[in-house]
């Protein structure tokens, strides 16, 4: 089951990393990454069908929110920015195998507020930055999950940072 979950995250990560400057795709990525991050804190959900279902449903709901939210673009951008910011923070803590402590949730809340502010004030650059971050996180988490790799810590973080920088450069050149 972890192979299928990892492959779903990996494929979504590739799409987000390459084409993530679209609000609906960014929403789907934020939903998937947040769902994966939250379910990974609950060991009873690890490697189950329920984890995969939660990830897919979260991606569909937030992707749909980004797709139909054209009329409320500013509000939708803030909501997706909040979820994306929180998801990125939780994913970074997951890379270091941190447990779901009070401080992780406080950091996720602060990351969510920063994400909402970033997407509401600087939509184009916010999309570029979050597409790169979320795509890189999904790629690394998907690869680690699918192939049972144990690059927790410094190496996986370094890969995420390098992929994020490359993604920002890629999207900025295509802007």
Helices and strands, with pairings:
Layout: H1 2-19, H2 23-40, H3 49-68, H4 73-95, H5 102-121, H6 123-146, H7 154-174
Write a structural description:
- The protein is an all-alpha fold.
- It has one domain.
- Helices cover 82% and strands 0% of the residues.
- The chain has helices at residues 2-19, 23-40, 49-68, 73-95, 102-121, 123-146, 154-174.
- Helix 1 (2-19) runs antiparallel to helix 6 (123-146) and helix 4 (73-95) packs parallel to helix 6.
- The longest helix is centred in the last third of the chain and has 24 residues, at 123-146.
- The mean pLDDT is 87.
Structural class: mainly alpha
Distance between the ends: 38 Å
Query: How is the quaternary structure best described?
Result: single chain
* Contiguous runs where pLDDT drops below 50 for at least 5 residues: none
Helix content: over 70%
Descriptive keywords:
7 helices, 175 residues, mainly alpha
Provide a concise account of the structure shown:
This protein has 175 residues and is mainly alpha-helical. 82% of the residues lie in helices and 0% in strands.
